[in-house]
Write the C-alpha cells for this entry.
Amino acid sequence: MNREKTNIFVAPSEVNVRIKQDLLKQIIPITEQITRADGNTKTLIPFLTINRHTCESSLTPSVLTPSFCMILQGMKELHLGNEMVYYYAGDFVASVIDMPTSGQVVNATPDNPFIGLRIDFTTKEIASIAMEAGIDKTQNKKKVGVGAFVGKADVELLELFIRLIKLVHNPNGISFLSENMKRELIFRLLTGEYGHLFYQHALFDQQADGVGKAIAWIRENYEKSFTVEELAKSNNMSISGLQHKFKSITTMGPLQYQKQLRLQEARRLMLSGLMDATSAAMEVGYESVSQFSREYRRLFGLPPKRDVKQVMENELGQRYRTQKSEHAHRSL
C-alpha cells in the first residue's frame, strides 16, 4: 500500500514558541539545583537573584529598582499606576528607574511553584553601554513613556540566561564572564523590540535640565521637603510640564512619588530590625509620626507595627514550607 508523504508546515511563530518553551525547561532545573527555598535567593553571580514561591502571595506595594525580571514558571500580577498586567513564563518586566508598583504571585503551589530570575543594573550602566555601542540617543527624544514595561523574551535572551546561570558551576569564571553577559543583556534590550522604552533620552540625559533630572533628584533626596514649584524652577520647566512628564514616566506626581519612596524605605528599615516606627519615620523625612502612620496604613493596609509583624510571620511560614518541601524531596 502506497502512502503519500505529507509535508506539515509549522508557522515560524509556532516554531519560535516551541523553542522558547524548550529553553525555559532547560533553565528551571538549573535554578532548582541552586535553591528550592521560597523568597529571594542571591546567587554567586552578584547581580542575579532567583525568586521562588510555592503559594500565592498577597498584593504588596514595593519599589521596582532598575532591573530585568523574567518569569520561568508561573504567573504574576503587576500594577503600574492604573494599569494591571498579568505576565507569564517567558515574559519579563524591565525598569529603568525606581518605580513604585504593586505585585503578587498568582496560582503558585508546591507542585507548580512560581520561579523567576532577576538581574539588577544601574542607569549609569545602561547609559554607558548605549554610548559605547553608538546607539542613537536622539530617537524618540521628545517622547516619554512609563519607566517600567512588560515584554516577551526572545530566543537570544533565553539562550543568554542559560549561559549565565550555568556560570554558578564555574566559580572561577563568574567575575569576568558574568559582567560581559550582563552587558550583552543590556545591549540586547537597548537594540531590541523594546529599545525605545528601555532607553529614553529624558531619563538618561542627566547633563540637561528636565524631568529625568527631577526624578533622579527625588530618588537621591527623598527625605528632603520640596514644593513642585521649586522642583520645576530648578529644572527649567513649567509646573504643568513637569507634572505631565513626571506622571507619564512614574504614573504619579512628584510628591506622591517621594511619599512612596519614603514609606518603602521606612518599611525596609523596620523589617531589618534597625529601627522602630518612630525612628524610621524621622529617618525618611516625616515630622509627624501620626501622619506617617496614616500614610503607611493607606499604602500597606496595616499600621506600621502590625504590618511588620505580619510580614515576619509570613516569612517564618515560608521557611517552614520550604523546609517541609525539601524534606519531602529528599525522601523521594
